Each structure stands twice: as C-alpha cells, then as structure tokens.
Amino acid sequence: MQKQTPQLWVLALLLLACNSPEATPPVAPPGQPTPVAGQACPDWVHNSYVTKGPDGEFYPTWHPQVDPEYKCYFTHEHGDDPRTSLANPELPPFGYVGKLAGMPEAHEGFKVFVSNRGTRNDEDRLALTSTRIVAHMGTGGVRRYSVRQHSLMFDLVAPSGHRVSVQGMADTGLVGSICDRDPTLNDADLSNDIGRSVMTLPGTGCHSQNPGSLYEIWAFKLRLADKAEVIASTAVFDPITTMNPANLSELHYTEQVFRGFTGLRGCNRESYHGPVYWYNANGPEVFFTDAFGKAGGPIRQLVSRHNDIGIWMSQRSDGFLNQFKLPKNHCAPGLGLLN
C-alpha cells in the first residue's frame, strides 16, 4: 500500500522515530491533528492512502478500516484487501474510471470483493476460478436511486486459460423493489429490467412494516467492444437508507423506517462473481475502450482469446454453477452513515 509522504521533514521525523530507543508517539505534520488510537483518523491520514493510476496520476485507494500505524479508525470501509487476490493483487485507483466518464463517484462507496480459487462458501460451493470485483456500491446516500451507471473493475483467472482484466462504467439497470425485479426480468422486455433492487418505504412495494430481513442487490453489466461481457452482482443485508419511489431524492434511514433494526452500516455484504461471456476467439487480447466500453479510448482492457458463453466458476455436490456467491461481513466499530 502506498502512502504519499514526499516531504523531507516527514522522512526526517520517521528516521528519528526509528532510531529512538523508546516507543515514540505518532507525529502529525505541522498544523495537523495528531492521530489517537481508538478514535477517528484525521483527514491527512486517510489522504495518505493513494496509488498511481494508468494515467500516471495518484488516486485514493483501498485502506483497512483501522490504520495499522496509528490505530485510529476510518468511518467507512472498502471491503476485502485487494492485495490478497490471485486474479489481481494491485491496489485499485478509486475514481479513475469515473473521471474518464465525467461521473465522479463518492469515495466511501468503493467496495472490493475477492474470491480465490479453492475458496468454499457457506453453501458448500467451491470456487473454481480466482476473481476480484471492485464495484461502486454504497448505501448511505440517495444518488444511487437515480444514477444508472456505476464503475466496475473485474478480474478473472481460470486454470483453463480464460482471463479478463477489465473496467468501465457498468449498466446497473433500473431501480425498484425486490418484488418488482423478477417480473421485469422475465417479461422479455429489456428496457424495463430492474438491476438495482432496493428497500422501499412500507406500502410502496412488497416490504411490510417489519420485514424479516433487509436486502439490497445490484446487477452490474459491462460490455466491452463486442469482445466480452462481464456480469457481477453485489448485495448488502444492512442497507443504510431506504427508497421512497415517489421521491428519489428523499433521505430515509432504514433503521428509522423499519422497527427492530439498529446499527445498519451497509457492511454485511455478499458478491456474485460471474458469469462472463467471451466473444474474442481471434483476439487481440489487449485492446482499448472508452469508459463505457466502446472501442477506442484510453482504458486498457484484457480479454483472453476465447469464444465461450460462460465457464464453470463454482462447484457443489449436485452439479456446477456459472457464478460463485461469497458472503463477507466487514462491520466494525466506528462506521458511519456514509459507507
């Protein structure tokens, strides 16, 4: 992980601290608050987590919820550590794709989902490929109800030689309730498909005043120059906000709408890796697109030379599946209402 500390005085302080025979308390830059263990980190600590993007510029990137050096915490989290991925261990540049698309995305919403080959989930399914999803899906605000395109980075490596490493603004479809989703997906009319299924106010969907569970799931679809289509889904069991279908700009906190739920922070999630469709038998493997997947542009894409409508990505005792589901819980003390 790269922390941006180019100033000479910072390096001098670090050398002094390393040479001290006694433990040295954290040293803040001049004019900046000192980090305190067990409290929220100052902004300058958060801003030190950066990585270089494909354009040579520095971008915010993944960080742990608790800073390992100062032991202070951040009020948001980004999910799995991308460096543990067997498909792509590089730190993702949050905001790179959105910048190219002219669609800035809130930093707190970037989430990472890692699934490595050999992982077994809670349903006794075994991952047959290594995949990594970096999706923009926060549940603390209301813009997600009206914004259809969200950034997606997707990496896959399979023993068969199938591979993708792609990114762009994915189509997440229309927004609606879970009870409206399936009828729209099965009516053969692609124009009305609900891809972002969210909680809605009682009386506006299929949610009662006291639902047994809370659930929000998005489907990301990214088509790349007619060479590949990547589909991934991400979901949360504790969405921070709930939608009013009559006014998408209204802010309603879920724990205030539905009784009996507290501490909802959008941190208990699951991911669906795949399917992926290859239309690239004749290559080339590396090509360039714009932020929306159209041929020509600055974004480097990699798609292996295959022509396959999906590959087996998970296995269970009664057969094979074309995707792999993996739940993860990243809830921790200190998370706020923007996550």
Could you characterize what this model shows?
The protein has 339 residues and is mainly beta. The chain has five helices and 18 strands. The protein has helices at 8-19, 43-46, 96-101, 178-185, 254-257, and strands spanning 2-3, 49-52, 58-60, 110-115, 126-127, 130-136, 149-157, 163-171, 174-176, 194-197, 216-224, 228-236, 268-278, 286-289, 299-303, 314-316, 319-321, 324-329. The strands form four sheets. It has a six-stranded antiparallel beta sheet with strand order 4-6-7-8-15-14. The radius of gyration is 21 Å and the shape is globular. Residues 1-23 form the signal peptide.
Which structural class do the helices and strands define?
A: mainly beta
| Strand order across the largest sheet | 4-6-7-8-15-14
Distance between the termini: 21 Å
Strand composition percent = 25-35%
* Shape field: globular
Order of helices and strands: EHHEEHEEEEEEHEEEHEEEEEE
The total of helices stands at: 5
| Number of DSSP E strands | 18
How big is the Rg? 21 Å
Largest sheet: 6 strands, antiparallel
- Runs in which pLDDT lies below 50 for 5 or more consecutive residues are 5-23
Give the mean pLDDT: 90
Range of helix content: 10-25%
Number of domains: 2
